[in-house]
Amino acid sequence: MTATIEKVVLPPIPAKRYFTIGEVSELCGVKPHVLRYWEQEFTQLRPVKRRGNRRYYQHHEVLLIRRIRELLYEQGFTINGARNRLDSHGGAQREADEREEAEAPVVTTSMASVDVDQLRKELLHVIDLLGH
Length: 132
Description:
Blueprint: E1 18-20, H1 21-28, H2 32-41, E2 48-50, E3 54-58, H3 59-74, H4 79-88, H5 90-103, H6 116-129
Antiparallel strand pairs: 1-3, 2-3
């Protein structure tokens, strides 16, 4: 019996700077506890930690998590194998990630539909993250 592995279609990554662990979980199709485990196994994965040890992932880390997911779940690599693959193909993968990012649909909002209160909350949140 042979197992067939289907490639999962993941949602586009919104154009924003920081993502919570819950958002990354949904964007990458991986449970939060798995993300926390992968942080221990993959040194390239270092989310910013703020108040109460809350994690905030940047766009490049979301792309990295998607790559790790693909190596482990779709290509069948072990953790060690995926780690070695990322180390040996880092430059080539970054180029592929940049191509994927360039081809990905850009999520934009017209100014007419901007929720000013929500925008204010997000700006205050970013200022808080930056420590000002």
